[in-house]
Amino acid sequence: MTQSVVVQVGQCGNQIGCCFWDLALREHAAVNQKGIYDEAISSFFRNVDTRVVGDGGSISKGKICSLKARAVLIDMEEGVVNEILQGPLRDVFDNKQLITDISGSGNNWAVGHKVFGSLYQEQILEKLRKSAEHCDCLQCFFIIHSMGGGTGSGLGTFLLKVLEDEFPEVYRFVTSVYPSGEDDVITSPYNSILAMKELNEHADCVLPIDNQSLFDIISKIDLMVNSGKLGTTVKPKSLVTSSAEALKKQHQKPFDGMNNIVANLLLNLTSSARFEGSLNMDLNEISMNLVPFPQLHYLVSSLTPLYTLADVNIPTRRLKPSLQFISWNQEGWKTSLCSVPPVGHSHSLLALANNTCVKPTFMELRERFMRLYKKKAHLHHYLQIEGMEESCFAEAVSSVSGLIEEYKQLDATLGTPVEDLPRLSVAV
Amino acid sequence: MSIVTVQLGQCGNQIGFEVFDALYNDSHCPQGLCSKRENEVYQESCKERFFSEEENGVPVARAVLVDMEPKVINQTLSKAAQSGQWKYGQHSCFCQKQGSGNNWAYGYSVHGPRHEEPIMNLIQKEVEKCDCLSGFFIIMSMAGGTGSGLGAFITQNLQDQYSNALKMNQIIWPYGTGEVIVQNYNSILTLSHLYRSSDALLVHENDAVHKICAKLMNIKQISFRDINQVLAHQLGSVFQPTYSMEGSYHYRRNPLGDLMESLVPHPEFKMLGIRNIPQMCENSLAYSTFTWTGLLKHLRQMLISNSKMEEGINWQVRPPLSGLPPLGKVSLNRELHFNTSIANLVILRGKDVHSADLGGFKDPELYTSWLAPVNAFSAWKTQRAFRKYEKSAALVSNSQFLLKPLDTIVGKAWNMFASKAYIHQYTKFGIEEEDFLDSFTLLEQVVASYCNV
What we know:
Chain B: It is found in: Cell projection, Cilium; Cytoplasm, Cytoskeleton, Microtubule organizing center, Centrosome, Centriole; Nucleus. Chain B: Residues 47-247 form the Tubulin/FtsZ GTPase domain. The structure holds two protein chains of two kinds. By secondary structure, chain A is α/β, with parallel strands linked by helices. Chain A is 42% helix and 13% strand. Chain A has twelve helices and eleven strands. Chain A has helices at residues 10-31, 39-42, 79-86, 109-133, 151-166, 188-202, 211-226, 256-274, 283-290, 358-374, 379-383, 390-412, and strands spanning 3-9, 45-48, 58-59, 67-69, 71-75, 98-100, 138-146, 171-178, 205-210, 300-304, 349-353. By secondary structure, chain B is α/β, with parallel strands linked by helices. Chain B folds into three domains: 2-272, Tubulin/FtsZ, GTPase domain (Rossmann fold); 277-320 and 337-402, CATH 3.30.1330.20; 404-452, no CATH class. Helices cover 44% and strands 17% of the residues of chain B. Chain B has helices spanning 9-27, 36-50, 70-83, 104-128, 146-161, 183-197, 206-216, 224-239, 255-263, 282-285, 292-304, 373-376, 403-418, 423-427, 433-451, and strands spanning 2-8, 51-53, 59-61, 63-67, 93-95, 133-141, 166-173, 200-205, 271-277, 341-350, 377-382, 391-399. A ten-stranded mixed beta sheet of chain B has the order 5-4-1-6-7-8-9-12-10-11, sandwiched between helices. Chain B has a two-stranded antiparallel ribbon with strand order 2-3. Chain B is globular and about 60 Å long. Classes of the chains: A alpha/beta, B alpha/beta. Chains A and B meet through helix 9 of A and helix 3, helix 13 and helix 15 of B.
């Protein structure tokens, strides 16, 4: 069985991370009734005897003593991480796996990437190496961050290069939260585009999350819950709609529902690697099957049931007629079946798609970027950082443009009859 | 003589378990419909082939289980142990932590060399337990990474290390609609490599078995377990003992050798398919009776019309009129395409087996011109019934059965290759475009050969 390490960077990253760990604990608690530390749990948690001081505390089998998340928490201001460490999940995190600073990155990618990057490079490397050492067979790093801010965006993407150099064989899965159109951070387009270049070059797989979509989903759920039309549609105690059983404060914070959805996504993604099923899928298979060309590694995700009791069987074939596949991959389906459902549901379905529908999102982002860049608005905040020049901006936008071009070309093949290359003919 | 089974990857291990279970249950089935002595000899023969004796009397399957991640093997071992009737050897498995990621190149070029020694040692130990080795039965899928890539590597190794033993690879053909996106690449790489190093490829198509489950077995929600059990039934009907020349109480000793001799007269033609009749759920068995004439008539038509099961057979297909000159290059698109055979083996089990008339299968029109029916057709029999079927017949055929599926897979893989999609995933681990081209060339050759039969 393999292990994965979650690296949560910045406010967004840490808040989502927190939701994820909460859900993971609940899921394993529901499945693992006997409290034995088994391989499924070990994929995300270490079993530690807290009475032992220093490093010797790891226990590999037997009863669960104290679970520690395989996580590294990074934030350049203390508020969020402190809150986590004072909250109900405080025992789940190893306080040696934190990197914090005081002042924050000021929503500036350059500060996060260049300043804090060089400042904390050694520490970051050390914590990552430690967490890798605790793993029997490390398969994957999950990085959770947002694109619009400074720390998550800048330091989060700095991390990618470090991971690529230090652990070239370990997969880098990045969950990136993209800013919505009405984002209140003015410089978010700059931060996002600068970060995109890094994602293009150093990530194995990116799961882009759109804040606007999450918001819409939550609004719909709220509407249904509040209008009293429960019963057959909304599951009141499902992991998504209710954090009543969650180990969190009573008053819900604004992004809780949205973060929960992302956490569910990550949980579902890794379920086949953790639990048994009749058609297992490991994380390295995701990359193998869904990334036909190295640059095109953006996977759009959808999850059901979120708020309805969707009917989930061996499904996918029914979707086929309504989806347009590229000519050389007409049956581009990768299926995986896992026997353990999420808490509160009997079935669930997660779909990951490598689809050119991400193109408009990237194009919009580039639009917003250009509006600011043409006027050179706020540019001085970035250029005054050592190591930043205008060429960084030019390269970044060119990288994103290149990506958009590739998607455009693939889109262009739709509708045009593609002539199959003639097969090799054999002399009889 | 004994057969050593190598179960590779998730598919191989899941199927392997069902096969041993089916073999064991059949050999201990009380309704053998034959004399006690006959039954005992049958049991002994089955045991010699597939099981070795453990100290406390529980038979141990002659198998080596290999997978690059532990979940499936753990499940398989515990399922076998739970039955209490047979089990796998405690130390017969090889397992790693991280799978092959559906990547043929990873299975072949990374896992293969890295784990060659321990895996071959395990196989060696199993071989040493046999008094006399008939050969290897390797169960694997084509679509994934371990079964396909590592399977191809191991088969090559077996050819080098045990050049006198026979190798039969049981290959699972994936669903046409897709289980793994790169399945076509993995398939062509597997098939081309196995064609060079294996002696025979016994192919089962997931689509076909799925239909059998739906139409004949009336299963509503078909799971892989159902599919594997139907598969195991078909394999059991081929591999369980049958009479040797001497008849009753004497069973054939070299199953693999006999199979190869009957079915693979020429190395260019190695692809075998199985058809079974009758196949139905156990509940219906009690209410059904069959005659050999009826069964064999259906089986023959299944052969010539390339039908996968006994329902929906196309009775319009007839052998081409004899006396006309041979047709030369046959178009793959012909509607009423007649399935020409290179060699056929019919296995009959059950009551009144000696009265069954196999004349229909000896018709020279069924076969290619370069092999007379007396050399192309064989029949094996036993009075001992198989799994409560009063009469059952299996057909193992080296014919144009797999021509269309093979052609389809090569076509799809070629299209994808033309766009260079996913190639970087393979070149990362040492499989270059050259290797792909070599595979395509070999398989186009096989397609052409079967086409012109």
